Structures are given as C-alpha cells and as structure tokens.
Amino acid sequence: MTLAEASDKVPEVKAAAAQDERIRKVLDLGSRIEGLARHASVHAAGVVIAPGPLTDYVPVCTAPDSKTDRDAIITQYDMVGLEHVGMLKIDLLGLKTLTVLHDATKMVAERHSVAIDLEKPDLNDPKVYELLRAGRTAGIFQFESPLATDCLRNMKCDCFDDLVATNALLRPGPLDTGMYLVYINRKLGREKVRYPHPALEEILAPTYGVIVYQEQVMRIASALAGYSLAEADVLRKAVGKKIKELIQEELGNFVKRAIARGHDKKTVEEIAAQIETFGRYGFNKSHSVAYSILSYQTAWFKAYYPAEFMAALLSSEIGNTDRVVQYINEARELDLQVLAPDVNESGYKFTVVGDQRIRFGLGAVRNVGEGAIASIIAGRQQAPYRSLVELCDRIDLRLCNKRVIESLIDSGACDSLGGERSQLVAALDHAFSEAQVRQQERFTGQGGLFGAESPAPSPQAPLPDVSPWTEHERLVREKAVLGFFISGHPLAKYGAEVELFGTRTTATLGMWSPQKVTVAAVVTVVKRQISKKTGAEYARLTLEDFHGAAEALVFPEAWAKLNGVIRADGAYLLTGGYSARDRGEEQAPFIVESARLLDELKPSGAIGIALRWSGGKPPEPDTARAIAALCAAHPGSTPVFIEWSGANGSGNEAVRLRSRSFRVDAADDLMAALRDLLGADGVSLVKA
Q1: Same domain, yes or no, for 141 and 284?
Q2: At residue 99, what are phi and psi to the nearest 5 degrees?
Q3: How far apart (Å, rounded) are the C-alpha atoms in residues 199 and 226?
Q4: Fewer C-beta within 10 Å: the chain N or C terminus?
Q5: Is 567 within a domain?
Q6: CB 482 within 8 A of CB 366
Q7: For residue 23, is it within any domain?
Q8: Is there a single domain that holds both residue 479 and residue 431?
Q9: Phi, psi of 73 (to 5 degrees)
Q10: CATH code for position 522
Q11: What is the per-residue pLDDT for 449?
C-alpha cells in the first residue's frame, strides 16, 4: 500500500493527517520520493556488453564509494532496464573452489609427479561416489550442508546425474515442495515413476518423472505444443524469472497449441499447472552440470589425494577461524595429522609434509604479514634455524619486529628452536638486540678486530631460567594468534564427559529441535546485556568445542540463577532448547536453561566404570582378585559396574550390576591397569 492509498483508505492515517499539519506535510513529502531508488549500488559480478561505446546506448556514472577502483564506470539502468534497451548482461562469478583445485593439482604434481587434467575428469569413478554416500562432504563444493550430505546418503548417490539433480533440487523452491524427496523415493523404487504424458517419458526418464530443469520445460513445450527452441526459451525465461504476467500468457499459448495438436485438454492443463509450480524452483541444467563438475572434482581429490586436497582447502580459508577448525577436524577424521606452524617448515599456505601430515601455514598466524613470511622462508634456504638468535639474525628485522616473532612463538612456530615457549619470549629482547647489532655491522661493512670479514658470532647464551607456561596459558596464547587451539584443547581432559553427556556439538547446535539438548563446551565469552523491554539482565555466550564455535543465549530468568555459575574459560555441560518461533531457521538460537561444570561430573558419581565380560567367559579367579585389588587401591567417588552379557542364558542381552563394595578414582592409570586385565573393550566409562 502506498502512502497515497493509506491516506485515502486507512481511517487512522486520514484522521491524523486532518488534525496535524506536520503529518500532512510528512505524507506529502513522502509520497513525492516514494518508489525512487534509495541509493545506487554495484552488482558484484555483472558485466554489460554493448555493440559499441557504452555511452552511446545507456547513461553511465562512476561507481559510488568504490574502494577498489575510483574510476569504475557503471550503468544507471538496472538489469531489467538494460535488457529492455538490448544490452547483454553477464554475471562473472569468482569461486574459491577453482583456487583449491588449482593448488591441489600443483601440489600433486610437485609431490607425486602426477599431472592431473581437470578438463577431462572420469565421471564414473566408484570410489568418488562411495565417499559421497558415506557423508564425507566437508569441503565438497555445493554439498557441505547437513541437508545436502543427508540427501546424497539417502539417495545412495552412484552416478553423475544424481549430483546434477541434487544440485538443482536443493534450492528453496524444491525444498518447500518436497520434490527432492519424490526424486529420492522414485530412484530407490519406493514410489512408482509416473509420467504426465507418454510423449514425455524420454524427456523426464533421467529424473524419474520429476521436472527438475528449465531445459526439460523447453523440450516439453516442443514435444506437446510444437514450440521452436526460440519460442520455448521465452517460456523458460518466463518461468525462470518468475514473471507472472508472462507466465500466464505463455502457458495460455502452450495449452491452446497443445490442444490444437490433438492432446487431451485436461492432461495439458495439468502439465501447464506443473510447469507453473516448477517456476517456484526451476533451475537450468547447464548451470547445475557446471557446478556438479566442480563438486565431482573436489570429491575426486579428497578420495585420491586427501592430504593435498585438505591442505589446499585449509589454505583457501586462512582467516576464517570457524572453517579452519571444521576442516582440521575433517582432516583428522581422514587420519591426517595437522601440525602447528614451524619457522623451519611452514610456507605461507598450508603444506603437505610426509604422506599423512599437513603443516600449518604461517599466513594464518595473526600479526605476521606476507613480507615477514617471505623473509623467514628466504632465511632458511641454506640451513634450518637452530636458535632464536639465529632466527632473528637471518631475517629482515624491518619486516619482522618483536611483535611478529612473539606471535610466532605463541603459535608454536618456534618450538623447533629448542626451549619452552616461556623461555623464548623471555629471551626475545636479548636475541632481537643482538641480531640488530650483527645486521648493522654487516650493513656498515665493519670487520673484526684482526681484519676478519665479519665479527665472530658470540657464544650462544643459555635461555633464561623461567617456568613453563601452564597448559591454560599456552592454549590461550595460541588462540590469540591462531584463532583456535592447535597443540591441545581445554576440553581434551573431558573426553568421556563430552562423549557420554553431549547430544550436540557446536557444529549442530543451530539445528532446531523440539526436545531438550545438551552440549559440552568451553564458554570463551560471557557478554552481559540489558533487555530493552524489561530492563532485566541476560547473557550471550560464545561456546567452543572440538568442532568450532557457536553462540548461545541465557534469558533473564535462567541468568538470575546461572550468573554466579557460568564464567569465561570454564568448561560446562549446558542444557537447553529452542524457541518455537525459530523452527525452520537455518541457525536457530540455542537457549541455555541449566549449566553444570564438567569438573563436577566424575566427583558427583554421574560417571561410572563398566567392567564387561560374557557369561560364557568370566574372568579367571586370579584376574578377579587383581581387579578387586586395583579398585581397593584407588578409592574415590566413581561407581563400578559389572556388565555381564549372556547371564542366565539370556543370549546377547547384558545385565548391569552395581558394586556395593567399591567406588574408585577413575584416573588414567587405573583405567590402563584394568584394560591390561580385561582388554581394551572390557573397560569403559558409562553414565551412572
């Protein structure tokens, strides 16, 4: 409704305007500017092509607030206006995936002497589809979302056509209409394949009777109504661009021409209705095929050269902490070891060292620029750095100041130089000063006392005698310069608690659920805020676990109870849920209702030790006595359970019995000793 219509049709607005001159003036001025462009903006990738000089055909201007090119020329017409005056507009999109493929290809050639031709992929490799069916889609172009992963897994993806169809179907329209589920059910034989008309079987057979692509609409129009390809393209454009008036006009013509060719009116009208519905989600096959080629190529590299692929993928996300954490976890799932940065081995990007190891790139360390990295790489060409003084002496100190070197120490990049990180930081001032003196002497050409070309190096001073950093301080410093933890994790010592009690991770915390969920995580940030509506205090939390980071909310009522419990850098088991109004959201806010310190779970008896054996093979008497002796020697608060499978002839069913005699301290040494007696599978931590 426009302002003029509101002034005429809405009684409250009409009355207010009649009573107040200022409101009349606002409505009058507003109606004059209503509908005008609010501001000028530039399409990120749009290029306009004209038969001659652009100024001969359309009005142009300089780009507003252009940060990259102040002289950039843009058209004053939008894309619709450009089409009306006959201009050709092309969107040229840049994809990071192309860089990933380029870098991976280069690494494979350098490390394995294998030349990979990306222009000629083998699209029928079963190993690639096996990887996709297994759900290993992290880093796979267009298929990283949980929905896409589940779709490939559920349809048992086994051919390139499945990739193409999935790329087209996983769009808002087909998701809303459930067409992707119809495709899956028909592919797997759960639902009978039906065709709207016998003449369409050849056109729709590859997609199991489902209209998936705009090209199929064109062929349907040609087969039933005798459209030429040019005429069919007008229909495709109407449907694809969702131009309502043009859709009605073109579908009306389609129905008339199909009936004139002898087809049943009811059937043709039903097909026309399907085409109109298809307009909500139509996707052109050529686009989907092009994307699917990239999807396939990324999956191929991941299947055959996982180390090189993951190194290239991690390099593409330098600066994106959440993505780097996600991909490091994926690399570990692929049995790849991701090593901390190292001044003697790292490049700017992530690199592969050995067969199963990826070395962190120096470009991901904060405060360390490209010039500093180039200087570090150049300085180690003749020999590796052996000490902090040697590092400072060989690099360009104009590019690598003390802040740069301290960041490298904090990240672990100087661990190969010997000593503790705390010692290296303490020695930095001395090492830097000594290196400056040496470099100045070399620069001025000052010789030694007896005419030597350069002064003899002073004996290597021992590192200062300072205490090592605590694990907490080391990890905090790492996170400050890398954005996450690399040499360990604050949750590492709570592995059992995370596995037993956490139902979600930070990677899945945004998925709405009607049930309560729990997440075991470190609270890294507590941001207290005041509600504008009620004036009550609530909190926003940043949570971190092995999978990355996520946000959570604590509403005033819960925060009143928890503000004395939740502290920054604490490890907690958080329980909560989601608001009903956030159902369907891509990232639903997690609302914390209760919190419990992970340190409290074992002492409270919430976790027990289960000793397992079968009824047919109970432990020998000596083993049983040794188990009892171990439990007696490690008293504590953890209950002990016996899980006896096949007890009393009950088959594979297990009976759990709780010991009345023993409560133990479930320390690592006790767990290791019990596993020596019962085997690795015979001892585990369980919910009590």
Answers
A1: yes
A2: -65, -40
A3: 12
A4: N
A5: yes
A6: yes
A7: yes
A8: yes
A9: -105, 130
A10: 2.40.50.140
A11: 47
**pLDDT confidence tier of residue 590, bands split at 50, 70 and 90:** very high
What's the token pair of residue 548?
């990355």
Element spanning 464, H or E: none
Neighbours of 34 (CB within 10 A): 11
Last residue of a domain, one of 93, 110, 133: 93
Alpha helices (H) in 550-641, listed in sequence order: 556-562, 621-633
Residue pointed to by tokens 């960041």: 407
Which single residue is written with the structure tokens 């606002």?
26
Is the backbone of residue 37 left (phi > 0), alpha (psi -120 to 50) or beta?
beta
- Specify the higher pLDDT residue, 440 or 459: 440
Per the CB < 8 A criterion, the answer to whether 125 and 300 are in contact is: yes
- AA identity, residue 561: K
Task: Identify the three-state secondary structure at position 195.
Answer: coil
Residues 6+ apart with CB under 8 A from 311: 103, 104, 107, 349, 350, 351, 352, 358
Q: What are the residue ranges of helices labelled H in 317-401?
A: 321-333, 370-379, 388-394
User: Could you give the CA distance from residue 192 to residue 194 in angstroms, rounded to a whole number?
Assistant: 6
pLDDT higher than 50, residue 267: yes
My answer on whether 86 and 103 are in the same domain is no
Summarize pLDDT for 40-91 with one digit per residue, the tens.
778 878 899 999 999 999 999 887 765 556 667 889 998 888 988 999 999 8
Both tokens of 469, joined, read 């950093």
Same domain assignment for residues 654 and 665: yes
Surface-to-core class of residue 665, CB atoms within 10 Å of its CB (0-12 exposed, 13-18 middle, 19+ buried): middle
637 Cβ partners below 8 Å, 6+ apart? 602, 603, 604, 605, 663, 665
Instruction: Flag whether 29 is in a domain.
Output: yes
The whole-number pLDDT of residue 176 equals 73
How many domains are contained in the chain?
Answer: 6
Same structural domain, 137 and 180: yes
pLDDT in tens, 456-513: 455 567 899 999 999 989 999 999 999 888 888 899 889 889 999 999 999 899 999 9
The tokens of 484 are what? 């996450």
Residue 94, pLDDT score: 85
Q: Judge whether residue 14 has pLDDT over 80.
A: yes
- Do residues 358 and 310 touch, judged by C-beta distance below 8 A? yes
Q: Are residues 184 and 231 in the same domain?
A: yes
Among residues 600, 621, 639, the one where a domain terminates is 600
Q: Are residues 353 and 415 in the same domain?
A: yes
Q: How far apart are CA 411 and CA 475, in angstroms?
A: 9
Helix 146-154 and helix 126-133, axial crossing angle in degrees, nearest 10: 120
Residue 53 is assigned to a structural domain of this protein: yes
Strands 607-614 and 570-577: unpaired
**What whole-number percentage of the chain has pLDDT above 70?**
94
Q: Phi first, then psi: what are they for 496, rounded to 5°?
A: -65, -45
pLDDT tens sequence across 112-122: 999 999 888 89
pTM of the model: 0.78
Shared-domain flag, residues 386 and 531: no
Query: Which residues make Cβ contacts (< 8 Å) with residue 559, sequence separation at least 6?
Result: 537, 538, 539
State both tokens at 127.
Answer: 């190993």
The domain containing residue 507 runs over which residues? 492-600
pLDDT over threshold 80, residue 651: no
